[in-house]
């Protein structure tokens, strides 16, 4: 089984509910969206970039693989890294749900380690999620505001969350100066209609793509508004940006 992989490395989760947890990250290439604030946009549509394996003390394998990568070629590094404790394996991107066969094969091959699979997704492909929901343990689901990405995905997001709610799922909304309250209220309605107990994480944007960081008062006001309809709302910035991308 093959897929485009830009990098694989061991580090801490820098966003959301599990910030600070040690994870093995597998970043897949390719996405069905083109968000202006994407911090991996340079490889989102490029299938030719090499797969970079993080240099790890004691690891004797190659540090670079040709794409698309056969999953068998990744396993020596994965096996090496999972000899030490990790909270979970983060399958990220891009949009990893474009590669459900790859995810299923990976799940089978790492089953022996009993490490949870953590899916980072834009939350717009509910049919693809259904193909792997049985093997995914944790879902970090982005909810895109039309005022930031120039297109509405409300129906896709609601269908996705209906599937995801059977697992440990939280919703992340990136907030910019340009994000509108009308969009935010619509997002809250969708989450509440699915399950008011789902955790919502509000993440101040890292300025890029013509979007600007939301002022602190906006983050506090929106958290207060969200707490009127949802049980658990947190404001969590991208901590890995503060720590020089550990």
Molecular structure report:
- With 246 residues, the chain is an alpha/beta fold.
- The chain has eight helices and twelve strands.
- It has helices at 71-81, 100-110, 126-132, 146-149, 154-164, 181-194, 216-227, 239-242; strands at residues 2-3, 5-12, 22-28, 51-53, 64-65, 69-70, 88-92, 117-121, 138-142, 168-175, 199-204, 233-235.
- The strands form two sheets. It has a ten-stranded mixed beta sheet, with helices on one face. A two-stranded antiparallel ribbon has the order 1-6.
- Strand 8 (117-121), helix 3 (126-132) and strand 9 form a beta-alpha-beta unit.
- The longest helix is centred in the C-terminal third of the chain and has 14 residues, at 181-194.
- The protein is globular and about 50 Å long.
- The two termini are 30 Å apart.
């Amino acid at each position: 089984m093959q897929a485009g992989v830009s990098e694989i490395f061991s580090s801490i989760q820098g966003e959301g509910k599990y910030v600070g947890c040690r994870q093995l990250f597998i970043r897949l290439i390719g996405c069905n969206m083109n968000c202006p604030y994407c911090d991996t946009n340079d490889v989102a549509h490029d299938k030719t970039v090499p797969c970079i394996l993080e240099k790890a003390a004691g690891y004797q394998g190659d540090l670079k693989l040709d794409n698309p990568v056969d999953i068998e070629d990744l396993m020596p590094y994965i096996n090496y890294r999972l000899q030490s404790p990790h909270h979970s394996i983060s399958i990220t991107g891009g949009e990893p749900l474009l590669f459900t066969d790859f995810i299923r094969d990976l799940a089978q091959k790492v089953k022996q380690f009993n490490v949870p699979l953590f899916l980072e997704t834009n939350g717009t492909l509910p049919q693809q999620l259904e193909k792997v929901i049985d093997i995914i343990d944790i879902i970090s689901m982005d909810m895109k505001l039309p005022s930031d990405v120039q297109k509405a995905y409300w129906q896709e997001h609601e269908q996705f969350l209906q599937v995801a709610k059977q697992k440990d799922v939280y919703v992340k909304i990136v907030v910019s100066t340009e994000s509108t309250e009308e969009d935010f209220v619509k997002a809250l309605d969708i989450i509440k209609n699915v399950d008011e107990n789902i955790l919502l994480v509000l993440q101040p944007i890292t300025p890029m793509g013509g979007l600007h960081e939301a002022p602190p008062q906006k983050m506090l006001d929106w958290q207060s508004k969200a707490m009127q309809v949802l049980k658990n709302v947190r404001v969590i910035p991208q901590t890995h940006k503060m720590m020089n991308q550990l």
